[in-house]
Amino acid sequence: MSRNPESHAESHDVREVDVVVVGMGAAGCAAAVTAHDAGATVLVLEKAAAAEAGGNTRVSGGGWFHHDDPERAAIYLRSLCGDRPLPEPVVHAWAHGTREVSRWVESLGVSVGPNGNYNATGAEYPEMPGSDCYGGLYCVDGVVGDGRLFAALEKALFERGISVHYDSPASGLITEPASGEVTGVVTAAGDRILARRGVVLATGGFEGDPELVRTHLGLDDAPVWGSVAATGDGLRMAQEAGADLWHMDNMMAVNGITEPGSRHGYFAMFLYSRGVLWVDETGRRFVDEFVPSGHGQALIDGRYVLHPQRPMWVIFDEHTRLAGPISPSADVLAVGWNVLMNGYRWSSDNSAEIAAGWIHRGDTLDELASLTGFPGDALNDSVSAYNAACAAGDDGDFGRSPATLVPILEPPFYAYRSGPLLGWTNGGPRRDEHARVLDTAGAVIEGLYAAGTVSSTFSWAKDGGFHIADAIVFGRAAGEHAAGRSRRNPEH
Q: DSSP letter string over 99-125?
């Protein structure tokens, strides 16, 4: 389906514009708006229907990292990369570009400002050099979530008359056989959209494709928090054009609950009680459940590691069940596919989700163990050791903060399996500071760009609002560079 201003014919069309943008999340919209404002004709292909368009941007917090000091921001980014350094031109472009995000969003005709609840006290990694640059999480109207950023971006497209084709997944790139230059896109319907100046891939990550997740992240059956349309389309197309890849094993995951049979999951935040234990498939506890962490990494045993990075069972008792909903509804945190798109409201005492079978219930720990398949006395031993730590106020095994040590004592007892829940992936086609995709020899693939989670900047750790900021920075970079390329020779 096409919307404003052109209709999409059912027959196999051949069209030609200056810039084709594939995907209309934050990166795609930023690329399209920037290319249009630079004088290019632009067409956007969006895989989903209009009601579900926008990928993870639509259901995200919609907030971005704000700062006023590119030099300190560059230091912070280098610190977060650890032993996975980025090319310095990319660091420079990111550090200077993120300073401009608030002004650019505001230029779209909306108010922006800091949110006072999330990342209000500063960086998630305050111990890292450069973290003092963190100036807050900025949002449209200063409010997290509820689709505000996507609404502003989509409106900017339509105000400019940029052609958007919904329900139009791309199936491949058109390339020049001799040079490898990318000159257009083929849609799943068979239409050919020729691009005189460039194609921007802004298709999101690969968290919605179980096989890619298994291959690159080592997870089986991991549910997703956002859009299941993020199935690695841009990754595959870029690879077919010869792209190199970077940081394919990096991700953002959280503790989450999934309705059986669904690919979408819910955040499990336990805002009202810390009486929670994480155990592995053998029933053994393996980590500090509330270790201070950022968006995907935590400092454990002296190293920043993915957290959580493996499937686990989450155990709690009747006291924690009655304390409040495990997963926040829209009035608390208006993010996530199930909350915003499906309108689900978690029951206040978790009883509806238990009755539906999302969470196992056992009158005793032995009964719970039999329901979950834990061997022998492992669960009893894990809970007993944890409760002893709570009584002593000292978690000698994993160093959990005494303030979070709430015992698991009151029957019945509960458990659910977390996959974990995938927020987004980070790896994809390698790109440069202009968002141009690079081949395996490090050379530019002419006419091909990538921005957003199809190819995020972050090689390892990342802070709050980094992904939206990154998507806008390199979406704008792609749109600007593509619009400024010399037109292809029509004879090619």
A: HTHHHHHHHTT--EEE-SSSSTTS-S-
